[in-house]
Amino acid sequence: MNVVLGVCGFLSCLIMANILLNKHIKTAEFFNEFYSFHKKINAEISFSQSTIKCLVDELNIDNDFNLAIKKYFDGFFQEPECEYINDTDKALVFNYFNALGVGDKNTQLKAVNAFEYEIKNKKDIYNENVKKYRLTYAKIGILFGIIVFIIFI
Amino acid sequence: MSFDFLPKRIFDALTLCDVDKLCEIRIRTNFPILLVFDNMKAYLSDEGCSVLKTAAIVATKDDILKTIRNVTEFSIYAFNQNIKQGYLTTKEGIRIGLAGDCVFDNDDIITIKNFTSLNIRIPHEVNCCSNYLLSKIIKKDTLFNTLIISPPFYGKTTMLKDLARNINRLEIGSILLVDERGEFNKITGENIDKMAYCNKAYAFQYGIRSLAPKIIITDELGDKKDWNCVNNAVFCGVKVIASCHGCSIEDVVNKEYFYKNIFERYVILNEKKVVESVYDKDFVLI
Asked: Is B135 in the A-facing interface, judged by CB distances under 8 Å?
């Protein structure tokens, strides 16, 4: 019985570690999508005459960033609702959305490109965080798991 | 007619008004929103139309920007050609006149920014309004080159739209609609080809070559290029029906680029948006 409880405790610790890591993965994915959207927008404005709304309509709702921008363009005009994004990042996304539709080609490009450094920087940081924390959380999960297992048996 | 491109507060207030009779909505930053009906003006309030200025909704800069963003689908850059000419057209063919800071590079306009006013002109379909005119410009299946003359807001475009529908029904031949501003969006027909959002010079040249129209219908002849297009088309054997700003025959004849031998019928519209008089090519009342 104690062994079963110990195994359960060990698995719970691994799951907890995974949940903690998941927040970082989601944030990194969000910013990867954000950066890729920014690049698409840039190309669209530079070389095409189709509208940003068309581009947004074509996005699949298979990730939180696409969901957030679709919601914004559907007239809700709000920050993303993802709980794993901190307030500063939410404000960044919101300001970026607000910068869409501000002027002619040059003005629009300047407006969105003003965000490029920050988006790329955050994307890189969050991707680094995932790499860094993946190992850390795995170690912590296993360590706590072993401790819990030992306590139970 | 859908006004869903307007900010919610203005849209909600408009739903309480009789929009069927609405001709214009004038939105100016920091001023009450004005509604222009056929024969009266009123202000837009949260409860609908109001004659009280104090009850009116005061437009903000944000209202204007939101409207423009919605019409351009957040892509002002994609509509810059139209913006440079001072207007936008919604998908439903509602024309929105723009005022703001014009940006010039030498003599060329680059764009308009910091928009301060909008003039939303609501088009109306008046079926059969051109029946009388049609009887004056067609004789034994022959259509005369016709110029419709009136000041702005006297129904030139409405008349042209109905003429297009009527001529389509008569099956005289292929009609090319040259629609620079997208105002003829809803006009379709088995004999109608439409070239929208392009300038007259391109549409006339390309259209005559490739679509072989018998009749070209176009709105608002303005500068020398426009008059040249019509002149060339007429000498290619194409019949042209066009419109032009002016109050009288004299106004048009005195225009710098007026060509005397193009048009065979001159039609003057009055403020009631009906035909007041029709002149032949020698300016004799008929």
From this structure: no
Cβ contact, residue pair A103, B74, below 8 Å: no
With beta carbons under 8 A apart, name residues in chain B contacting A45. Answer: 75, 77
Whole-angstrom distance, CA of residue B277 vs CA of residue B286? 8
Tokens for A48, please give them: 């095409």
B179 bridge partner residues: B196
- Helix locations, B61-146, DSSP H: 61-71, 80-84, 131-137
Q: What is the pTM of this model?
A: 0.75
Which of A53, A75, A105 shows the shortest C-beta gap to B73?
A53
ipTM over cut 0.85: no
Tell me which chain B residue has its CA closest to the CA of residue A48. B78
Please spell the DSSP secondary structure of B169-225, one letter per residue: HHT-S-EEEEETTSTTTT---TTEEEEESS-HHHHHHHHHHHH--SEEEE----SHH
Contact A102 B80 (CB under 8 A): no
Instruction: Collapse the DSSP code of B111 into the 3-class scheme (helix H, G, I; strand E, B; otherwise coil) and give the result.
Output: strand
* Per-residue pLDDT tens digits for B177-224: 999 888 888 888 999 999 988 889 999 989 999 999 999 999 989 888
Rounded Cα–Cα distance for residues B71 and B3 (Å): 10
Task: Enumerate the residues of chain B whose CB falls inside 8 A of the CB of residue A49.
Answer: 78
How far apart (Å, rounded) are the C-alpha atoms in residues B137 and B131? 10
Q: Residue B111: its chain A contacts at CB < 8 A?
A: 103-104, 107
The distance in angstroms from the start CA to the end CA of chain A is 9
- Is A73 an interface residue toward B (CB < 8 Å)? yes
Integer Cα distance of B241 and B265 in angstroms: 9
Q: Is A108 on the interface with B (CB under 8 A)?
A: yes
Q: What is the pLDDT along chain A (153 residues), one digit of tens a residue?
A: 778 888 888 888 888 888 888 889 999 999 999 999 999 888 888 887 788 888 888 888 888 899 888 888 877 667 777 888 899 999 999 999 988 888 888 889 999 999 999 999 999 999 999 998 888 888 888 888 888 888 877
**Residue A54 to residue B73, Cβ atoms within 8 A:** yes
* Residue type present at position A58: E
B77 with A50: Cβ contact below 8 A: no
- Identity of the residue in B8, B73, B110 whose CB atom sits nearest the CB atom of A104: B110
CB–CB of B255/B147 below 8 Å? Answer: no
